[in-house]
Write a structure and sequence with these properties.
Elements (H helix, E strand, L loop, with lengths): L4 H14 L12 H18 L4 H6 L7 H20 L5 H8 L5 H16 L1 H31 L3 H8 L8 H4 L8 H26 L1
Helix pairs in contact: 2-6, 4-5, 4-8, 5-7, 5-10, 6-7, 6-10, 7-8, 8-10
Length: 209
């Protein structure tokens, strides 16, 4: 149920704004920028305050970078195919949406902020809403398939499907079976999530530029 909280909050915000109940302070043009900075700082704090960060760094092997690299490449490659299907939508917008890797909170806020200057608030909000829904769907697919893939002995595939969620909500399903509950798989899942979390703002800023 908690995974539906953010979409519900978005719809609640739409309803409040549509009814004209929004206080004047929310209309301040500098507020979204401040919220964006706070969200990015929170990402950094979340990474730095992880109790297992030291063990992740100690167990790090350069080979572990291949998995997030493959996830990024595969996601962007299939997202590019989507740009061909949705020819009436800007290909850069579609690529930015695909660059969320399941991180629906940060990706939608970043896209709304970056796109507002070039296409206006209304169009930027539309792209951000699509990004929110697309990345929520990715997380839902991950939650439904990770455990099955891991039980089949395909832990790396489960990590890649999970996207950024490989280091938190999907981790128990990825490593929860005896067949895949080894330290290497845990390290791979955590490093994979960390790399993708860092990549999201970089890639979105590139495509929204």
């Amino acid at each position: 149920m908690k995974h539906l909280l953010f979409p519900l909050m978005v719809f609640a915000g739409i309803f409040v704004g549509w009814c004209g109940l929004m206080p004047d302070v929310v209309s301040d043009s500098s507020l979204p920028q401040l919220c964006l900075y706070a969200l990015i700082i929170q990402v950094g704090l979340g990474l730095g305050m992880r109790p297992d960060l030291k063990s992740i760094l100690k167990s790090f092997r350069p080979r572990l970078l291949l998995l997030p690299a493959c996830t990024i490449f595969g996601t962007l490659a299939f997202t590019y195919i989507a740009t061909i299907i949705f020819a009436d939508t800007s290909s850069a917008d579609v690529m930015a949406i695909g660059s969320g890797f399941g991180y629906y909170t940060l990706s939608s806020v970043l896209i709304a902020q970056f796109k507002e200057a070039s296409v206006g608030a209304e169009a930027a909000a539309s792209v951000a809403a699509i990004a929110l829904l697309a990345n929520v769907v990715r997380e839902m697919i991950a939650l439904l398939t990770c455990q099955y893939l891991s039980r089949r002995g395909r832990g790396e595939a489960a990590i890649s499907v999970a996207g950024i969620n490989s280091m938190d909500v999907c981790l128990p399903m990825i490593v929860g079976t005896e067949k895949s509950s080894d330290a290497q798989l845990v390290s791979a899942a955590l490093v994979h999530g960390l790399i993708l979390e860092i990549s999201v703002p970089i890639l979105i800023s590139i495509f929204c530029a």
